[in-house]
Design goal:
Strand content of chain B: 5-15%
Oligomer: heterodimer
Strand content of chain A: 25-35%
Radius of gyration of chain B: 20 Å
Number of helices of chain B: 9
Strand order of the largest sheet of chain B: 1-5-7-8
Helix content of chain B: 40-55%
Number of helices of chain A: 3
Order of helices and strands of chain B: EEEEEEHEEHHHHHHHH
Number of strands of chain B: 8
Distance between the termini of chain A: 27 Å
Helix content of chain A: 25-40%
Chain lengths: ~90, ~300
């Protein structure tokens, strides 16, 4: 299942940590604070657990993350205005 | 999610872990950076440096690290937890000593059947006579004869002659040549075949290890210190359908593409399910004494 992760975090350091965690877990950045990734249930749990750990360290300011499941069919109907993010380039990384 | 295969092909590349991602850079410039969750293997084609942290991460995520030299896999990182299965190893060693021909026959039978499938495809498509029937005849004889290797050599002659006829003559393919002293003298198709068999060997090697078999004890290929004989054995069935067929296709369609290394290497992303199933079949056959059925291409 595809998951879209949105976040709204005021603290700069914390925001970077969240972005690094999502990248580490294999999600792709599509906008400054939006990531997308194809996760199975184990990997989803892993991502969510990691985000919850970070939440505990958030001292002040807004910390809000939304993880939204999307089906491939729905995702293919998306409308983009402006720059579209680059899709993955395939199975070989050269 | 399909996992990806990453190549390290730039001279002097540095592989390290950065913020939990595996990063490959050359002279400070990042070539690729991947999350360990999305990679299945990393293949090193050239001299490069590798951080031990990458090895640790690869072990945690089950990423295969394979090192190539001149298109041949020469080394592979095996997890310390890997012990294979003692019971299976003992049975394998016993069978290899007592009755190696039983399995050798099946491997060669599978190989020759699959070669026939490839040849027959072109016979039908272009109404050529490529002596496919002789191959079928030979493969049947393999099942009763003791000189398995002799039959294999006869089959190979017919097979490569047929291949020579279906690929463009501009490629200068005169027949199958293995590694020579001077690799520059090899024609493009032979070079690509060497790469393909190298990639296939890597894949079979991984399957043999994950099925808990001992890669060094073979049936068809004799024991020699340091040679992964069982991997060579199991490879035989897959050579024609997985390596030769896509390459013949590529050579006919676009002979120039054989010069493009990326294209050649990415031609060989195998359906690993089939290969792993065969390794498990062999393990089951050794453990339970069932008959081993080779992989028959369609």
């Amino acid at each position: 299942m595809l998951y879209v992760v949105f976040y709204d975090i005021t603290d700069n350091g914390m925001r970077n940590k969240v972005a690094d965690l999502l990248k580490k877990k294999g999600l792709t950045r599509v906008q400054y604070s939006v990531f997308i990734g194809d996760l199975n249930s184990a990997r989803l749990k892993d991502v969510v657990a990691g985000l919850r750990v970070l939440q505990r360290y958030n001292k002040e300011g807004r910390f809000s993350i939304l993880v939204l499941p999307v089906t491939q069919a729905m995702f293919s109907q998306r409308i983009t205005i402006g720059d579209e993010f680059k899709e993955d380039e395939g199975e070989v990384v050269w | 999610m399909e996992k990806r295969t990453a190549f390290v092909k730039d001279w002097g590349a540095v592989l390290r872990v950065n913020k939990g991602r595996i990063e490959c850079s050359v002279k400070g410039q990042v070539k690729w950076s991947l999350s360990p969750a999305e990679v299945s293997s990393i293949i090193f084609l050239v001299t490069s440096s590798l951080s031990t942290e990458v090895i640790r991460l690869a072990n945690d995520f089950g990423i295969e690290l394979v090192f190539f030299y001149k298109g041949e896999p020469i080394s592979k990182v095996v997890h310390a937890n890997y012990v294979g299965s003692m019971k299976l190893w003992l049975k394998q060693a016993r069978e290899a000593r007592k009755n190696p021909v039983k399995y050798a026959r099946q491997f060669i039978y599978g190989k020759m059947h699959n070669q026939w499938v490839t040849v027959h495809y072109y016979e039908k498509k272009y109404s050529l006579d490529l002596k496919g029937d002789e191959l079928t005849q030979l493969s049947k004889e393999v099942l009763t004869a003791d000189e398995v290797m002799q039959k294999e050599a006869q089959g190979a002659k017919i097979y490569w002659r047929a291949v020579k006829r279906v690929i463009p003559s501009t490629l200068g393919f005169k027949g199958r040549r293995k590694m020579t002293q001077n690799e520059e003298n090899l024609d493009l198709l032979n070079k690509a075949l060497n790469i393909g068999y190298g990639m296939l060997r890597k894949e079979v090697w991984g399957a043999v290890i994950s099925a808990g078999l001992n890669p060094y004890v073979g049936f068809l290929h004799k024991y020699r210190a340091g040679r992964i004989s069982l991997v060579f054995d199991l490879m035989e069935e897959f050579r024609s359908p997985f390596v030769d067929r896509p390459l013949i296709g590529l050579a006919r369609e676009n002979p120039e593409a054989l010069k493009d290394l990326k294209k050649v290497y990415s031609t060989f992303l195998f359906d690993s399910d089939v290969i792993y199933t065969q390794a498990r079949r062999l393990a089951n056959s050794l453990l339970q004494g069932e008959e081993y059925r080779p992989f028959m291409a369609k």
